[in-house]
Write a structure and sequence with these properties.
The structure holds two protein chains of two kinds. Chain A is mostly helical. Chain A has helices at about 1-20, 40, 50-65, 70-90, 105-110, 110-130, 140-165. Classes of the chains: A mainly alpha, B alpha+beta.
């Protein structure tokens, strides 16, 4: 219960940060700052995928409602939550998972965390911009947009993770 | 044995939940207008607007310099027009008087998407109706889409779904202007006849062939031309309007839009 309240507060925080700060940074059509994805990446290793998908859906839907875009963020978040266990398998060694609690810079190291974040963002952005450019003639623009935004957001997400969620205490969420 | 059965069952649950949540998302995407018009969005938008306005008033001070410059340029142009009218003593009953303007302030604006939109603080209470044109200090801004009593949602010109009838002067070639999604300062005019005379540096304006915009509202400057599909001329233009610093816009009302639409329907 206390845990869920904590997740809910973090969700509101990410939603507010996304809408009032990052949505307002006009960096042109190729760079879309989108940091709330970190919310899905913060969950512990063995977290139930069904619950994770529900949390991801709630996160995506709240961003959708606040930005007026219909269901695109929700769809992208659910896809990422669905695939997150597989992405985590890529960056961890078998047997190591039992010892660690959450995937953070401190627990899995900089290079592996970078790979984890960039693959996760790539999945999220591919779905998000795929829905946005729902016409095959725009596919090359969508690919540029996915790659540029993934590069930008990887940097932003790693910095935010290092700044706010890398303390030993927050591992216990 | 029990463990493997459990994980198999868990896999089914996860997959079903995934399909269900995706289904809800896709339903929302497919019925986007339902979401946009839903009350909850309006509610959030008004709360959003409250905070946005606080932030915007701070931003406004940093933009004062450029806004003043734009106003001075506007004044100069209006003054020259005034002088022209006074010297020619032209009676003010030109065809443009069928259009009137409603001033509005931009309360929300996106430029980072493929389908951008903005929200203005004028709605049906002030006479705004769907499909009215919206122009800014330096040219076309967009077309009104959804109207609420006090606010309206405007489809930005920076939206890959918008097409506007444009004319390139002085060659008088007409084509349709659309955003290419690459930069917030550029757009494309396509479907112009191959023989039309379009040169780099020519000015693109609205054609006045639709009842949404009056004729000769500025759009941009031609920066490159190209022949596509062997038959049509395409021109790349740089837009006059900077969509990042939009603050005041004008909704254009055509007094006879209903009448013209009725004629079109009768056909």
């Amino acid at each position: 219960m206390k845990r869920n309240l904590y997740y809910f507060l973090i969700l509101l925080l990410f939603c507010a940060a996304q809408i009032f700060i990052f949505e307002r940074l006009h960096l042109g059509p190729f760079l879309y700052p989108c940091i709330y994805v970190l919310f899905i990446l913060l969950f512990p290793f063995g977290y139930n995928t069904s619950y994770l998908m529900l949390w991801a859906f709630a996160m995506g839907l709240s961003v959708d409602l606040c930005t007026g875009s219909p269901g695109m963020h929700a769809s992208a978040c659910v896809c990422l939550a669905f695939l997150r266990p597989n992405v985590l398998k890529l960056v961890t060694i078998k047997g190591e998972v039992g010892l660690l609690v959450t995937p953070t810079l401190r627990t899995i190291g900089f290079s592996r965390y970078l790979v984890f974040v960039s693959i996760s963002l790539l999945i999220h952005h591919a779905v998000l911009f795929g829905w946005e450019c729902f016409k095959i003639s725009w596919i090359h623009l969508a690919i540029y947009r996915i790659l540029c935004s993934t590069a930008l957001n990887t940097i932003l997400v790693v910095l935010i993770q290092a700044a706010f969620f890398n303390k030993r205490r927050s591992i216990e969420i | 044995m029990r463990l493997s059965r459990n994980s198999w069952f868990n896999g089914i649950v996860v997959t079903l939940l995934f399909v269900a949540l995706q289904g809800v998302s896709i339903f929302l995407i497919a019925h986007s207008s339902v979401v946009q018009q839903a009350g909850i969005v309006r509610l959030i938008n008004s709360g959003h607007h409250f905070l946005w306005k606080r932030q915007q008033s701070i931003d406004y001070y940093f933009q004062l310099n450029s806004i003043n410059k734009a106003l001075v340029e506007d004044n100069i142009e209006l003054r020259t027009q005034l002088i022209r009218y006074q010297t020619t003593m032209m009676p003010n009953t030109s065809i443009d008087s069928i259009y009137s303007c409603i001033g509005a302030e931009v309360v929300f604006n996106t430029t980072a998407h493929a389908q951008n939109y903005l929200i203005i603080n004028r709605g049906s209470n002030h006479g705004v109706q769907p499909d009215m044109g919206v122009i800014g200090d330096h040219g076309v801004v967009g077309i009104v889409h959804v109207v609420h009593p006090n606010y309206s949602r405007v489809i930005s010109l920076l939206n890959t779904k918008v097409r506007i009838n444009a004319r390139v002067e002085p060659g008088q070639a007409t084509g349709s202007l659309s955003w290419d999604g690459k930069s917030i300062r550029s757009a494309l005019i396509s479907d112009m006849p191959q023989h039309s005379h379009v040169a780099v540096g020519d000015t693109a304006v609205t054609s006045g062939l639709s009842q949404i915009f009056p004729a000769r509202i500025p759009l941009g400057v031609v920066t490159a031309t190209d022949i596509t599909r062997g038959t049509f001329l395409e021109a790349q233009i740089t837009l006059f309007q900077n969509f990042n610093t939009l603050r005041y816009v004008y909704v254009v009302r055509n007094a006879y839009a209903q009448e013209i639409n009725n004629l079109l329907v009768d056909l």
